[in-house]
UniProtKB/TrEMBL annotation:
It is a single-pass type II membrane protein. One of its GO terms (biological process) is cell wall assembly. NCBIfam families: lytR_cpsA_psr, PRK09379.1. PANTHER family: POLYISOPRENYL-TEICHOIC ACID--PEPTIDOGLYCAN TEICHOIC ACID TRANSFERASE TAGU (PTHR33392). Its EC number is 2.7.8.-. Keywords: Cell membrane, Cell wall biogenesis/degradation, Membrane, Signal-anchor, Transferase, Transmembrane, Transmembrane helix. This is Polyisoprenyl-teichoic acid--peptidoglycan teichoic acid transferase TagU. GO terms for cellular component: plasma membrane. Pathway: Cell wall biogenesis. Its main location: membrane. The keyword Transmembrane helix applies. The chain crosses the membrane at residues 12-35. The lineage of its organism: Bacteria, Bacillati, Bacillota, Bacilli, Bacillales. Residues 33-318 are extracellular.
């Protein structure tokens, strides 16, 4: 497995939580209004999975006992009249006992069993077949670890998020053009439309999905940076509106605050990993093929970080 590890201060989780939770802490006289808006927003974006807990976790997570948790971050491309598909899948494991967080990017073309369909297909097709439930089950089967929570962001409307904070700055490492815009190397400022084009480019980047996921993280971190400095009540209202329109999660408001209370320090030590595989065509269709030994090694690594047994492994074939 090819691994690229580095530390970052912000992650997808803290971005989402900052928008609908942490911002409440920085507002003084607007505290009650923001608390009410935050709780209403979280209630409106709540989406339950069709189960009580993951079948791969014997007991429910207890935050006060600092059980390590996993969160599936889903960037979904949903357009009017289309079922949509998952554009980006990142599994985050958070261990408050070691104060560490691991993020694994799963290439959208990864060939694996689609749980509930009984076929081998690209992992991102699981969302088109069965929505959030099938995607979560498929990721669990592929990595043989529990997915405790998910945060789903509609990438098609992601431009609204960027515009709500007044644009973002990113450090672009690749000179390219996409969607009618030019993106030179260096520090660039992006509005919502440009940010969407920036994150969607894939074929001009030799890193493929990994390059695109890196650009998505840059945009989201930019949103976090700008959002944390918002002081206008109007801007807060805009941000809550964007979250209501573009984000869903099975986390409750209380669970978000429990995570902040017991897990926040783990975000300061972040490792990012890529799944090693090779591109190949089967029946004329391109797939990202992950060797079984690579899949098992990654699975065991995640199990160790989640402090669960490594004695068993999924039976997924690639």
């Amino acid at each position: 497995m090819m691994r690229e590890a580095r530390k970052k201060k912000k992650t997808w989780l803290w971005i989402t939580l900052s928008i609908i939770g942490l911002l409440v802490l920085s507002t003084g006289g607007y505290a009650f209004y923001l608390y009410k808006s935050a709780t209403d927003t979280v209630a409106s974006i709540h989406e339950e999975l069709d189960r009580d807990k993951s079948p791969k976790r014997p007991d429910k997570v207890t935050f006060t006992e600092k059980d390590p948790i996993s969160i599936l971050l889903m960037g979904v491309d949903e357009r009017e009249g289309d079922k949509g598909r998952s554009d980006s899948l990142i599994l985050m494991t958070v261990n408050p006992n070691t104060n560490s967080t691991q993020m694994v990017s799963i290439p959208r073309d990864t060939r694996t069993e689609i749980v509930g369909k009984g076929i081998q297909d690209k992992i991102n097709h699981s969302y088109a077949f069965g929505g959030t439930d099938m995607t979560v089950a498929t990721v669990e089967n592929f990595l043989d670890v529990p997915v405790d929570y998910f945060v789903k962001i509609n990438m098609e409307s992601f431009k609204d998020t960027v515009d709500a904070v007044g644009g973002v700055e990113v450090n672009n490492t690749l000179n390219f053009s996409s969607g009618g815009y030019d993106f030179p190397e260096g520090t660039i400022t992006l509005d919502g439309e440009k940010a969407l084009a920036y994150t969607r480019m894939r074929y001009k980047d030799t890193r493929g999905d990994f390059g695109r996921q890196e650009r998505q993280r840059q945009i989201i971190e930019g949103v976090m940076k700008k959002g944390a400095n918002i002081s206008s009540i109007t801007k807060f209202g805009d941000m809550f509106g964007v979250v209501r329109d573009n984000v869903t999660t099975n986390l409750t408001f209380d669970e978000m605050w429990e995570i902040q209370a017991n897990y926040k320090a783990a975000s300061q030590n972040l490792e990012q990993f890529q799944v090693k595989g090779t591109g190949d065509k089967i029946g004329g269709i391109y797939y990202y093929i992950v060797a079984e030994e690579e899949r098992l090694a990654l699975s065991n690594q995640l199990k160790q970080h989640l402090e669960i047994s490594t004695d068993t492994a999924a039976t997924t074939s690639n």
